[in-house]
């Protein structure tokens, strides 16, 4: 099995990087082929720019999607994008490690999706969702937050962290990945005093052991359920009898809130 582990944290010795290294160790012991990369260490440029495309289809107006498709077909994508696309296409399991910053992913990881999820290469009108190019592959978000589990809960002061991770999960599902339930670790804080730091270290050590054990039994990891193409009408809205799995795709937002 091929495993691609992508870390998005600027500190090489961060807890996120530590988790990624532990995940790599687990899969290597299982005999898997593991590719471990850190976007910051690679100095990955998250901004889509016209200068990335040397053989422009339209030199007067920059249309990122059209240039992506054009350069994909001509086999002229930027070398770093071509490498990341090939890594994705060759992997069986993708794990994204990142801190929850300002209620979402770090900008470098969002930019990675913007540039690497190449139109024409990783998706098009015929290859999306359950018919996506990444069909049969699994993706897992491993996410840390400085706030407590209570603060990040459905009734917490910071809002439902699991719910706010729907956009990156939807993006991965859009190109065909089967999405595993995110692994969330709360209360990862810096600048603590000695006693508090020791308590946090002990707690996080337990989290790491649990994470490793979960990875060993990856086949049992629960999946996030999304609506299928057959759940939608021709106008791309839910059929009246279709199930609801998220407040982002539902029959009536008010009803969803009232029933939950």
UniProtKB/TrEMBL annotation:
A GO cellular-component term linked to this record: cytosol
Gene Ontology molecular-function annotations: NAD(P)H dehydrogenase (quinone) activity
Limits of the Flavodoxin-like fold domain: 1-202
Gene3D superfamilies: 3.40.50.360
UniProt keyword annotation of Calcium present: no
Domain of life assignment: Bacteria
Keywords carried by this UniProt record: Oxidoreductase
Pfam families: Flavodoxin_2
Family that this chain belongs to: Belongs to the NAD(P)H dehydrogenase (quinone) family.
Protein's recorded name: NAD(P)H-dependent oxidoreductase
Organism: Affinibrenneria salicis
């Amino acid at each position: 099995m091929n495993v691609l582990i992508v870390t998005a944290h600027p500190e090489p010795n961060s807890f996120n990087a530590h988790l990624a290294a532990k995940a790599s160790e687990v899969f290597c012991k299982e005999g898997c082929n593991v590719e471990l990369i850190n976007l910051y260490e690679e100095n990955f440029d998250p901004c889509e720019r016209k200068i990335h495309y040397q053989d422009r289809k339209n030199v007067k107006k920059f249309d990122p999607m059209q240039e992506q498709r054009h350069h994909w077909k001509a086999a002229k994508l930027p070398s770093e994008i071509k490498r990341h696309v090939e890594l994705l296409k060759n992997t069986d399991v993708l794990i994204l490690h990142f801190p929850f910053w300002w209620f979402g992913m770090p900008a470098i990881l969002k930019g990675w999706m913007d540039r690497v999820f190449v139109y024409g290469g990783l998706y098009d009108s015929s290859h999306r969702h359950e018919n996506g190019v990444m069909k049969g592959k699994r993706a897992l978000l491993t996410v840390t937050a400085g706030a407590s589990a209570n603060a990040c809960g459905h009734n917490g002061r910071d809002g439902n962290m699991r719910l706010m991770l729907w956009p990156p999960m939807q993006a991965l599902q859009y190109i065909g990945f089967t999405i595993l339930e995110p692994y969330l670790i709360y209360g990862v804080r810096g600048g603590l005093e000695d006693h508090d730091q020791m308590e946090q270290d002990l707690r996080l050590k337990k989290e790491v052991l649990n994470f490793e054990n979960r990875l060993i039994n990856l086949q049992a990891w629960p999946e996030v359920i999304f609506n299928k193409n057959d759940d939608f009408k021709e106008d791309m809205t839910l059929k009246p009898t279709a199930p609801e799995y998220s407040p982002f795709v539902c029959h009536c937002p008010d009803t969803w809130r009232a029933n939950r």
